[in-house]
Amino acid sequence: MRIRKLFKFENAHIVRNCSSERCKHSIHGHSYQIELILEAKRLDHGQMVYDFGLLKSSIKDIIDSFDHAICFWSKDDPEYIAACKKFSARWISLPVSPSAEQFSRVIFFWADEILKQTQMQNGEADVKVYSVIAHETATGYAQCFADDVNNEQMGKLKLEDFEFSEQVSAEWHDPELYAKLIRGERFVNPSVTMQVHEQQTGTV
């Protein structure tokens, strides 16, 4: 069973080394739509793959980091990076280019890491990210699967290689969110009191 949650943000970037003259030389922005698709082979006590409400915490915060921010490749010109940091309070440094393809990989990577470190409280089992689709324009998107995240030919992704500006992290519900993720600390979902108890069937 698969479920899909849509997230939206506005973001600016330059995509170095690409074919388009406009994209590789000038700062420009897009209205992104992100489709996060989760899957599981069983349902929780609420008979859901994963409660949509649970996606409004850490995963929403990490994706919302991109909103009204400028993203840059950490290998870009140091003067350009310094200018981004000086003139924008919201910025993210990425170990890969800020293309739609890499946005889909990065968001898959972050969401997957958060789910792996989450203590489930409502009978969830085997919940994992199936795919992430990053819509950059009305006509173009990039779609990522697990094999793409693990494909180092597309760029190695390590939690320690991302950097967020102070304003970005200050707007998370927990400003220590990313530090906890790096440290491998558990994210604990709220506990649930059963309102309806399923009948157990058996043979006599």
Automatic annotation (TrEMBL):
Its EC number is 4.1.2.50
The record's GO molecular-function terms, alphabetically, read: 6-carboxytetrahydropterin synthase activity
What pathway does the annotation place this protein in? Purine metabolism; 7-cyano-7-deazaguanine biosynthesis
Q: Give a yes or no for keyword Zinc in this entry.
A: yes
Alphabetized InterPro entries for the sequence: 6-PTP_synth/QueD, 6-PTP_synth/QueD_sf
- Keyword annotations from UniProtKB, A to Z: Lyase, Metal-binding, Zinc
Q: Does the keyword DNA-binding apply?
A: no
Q: Which cofactor does it need?
A: Zn(2+)
- According to the record, the signal peptide region is none
Which Pfam families does the UniProt entry name for this protein? PTPS
Report which reactions are catalysed by this protein: 7,8-dihydroneopterin 3'-triphosphate + H2O = 6-carboxy-5,6,7,8-tetrahydropterin + triphosphate + acetaldehyde + 2 H(+)
Family assignment?
A: Belongs to the PTPS family. QueD subfamily.
- What protein is this chain from? 6-carboxy-5,6,7,8-tetrahydropterin synthase
Organism from which the protein derives = Psychrobacter saeujeotis
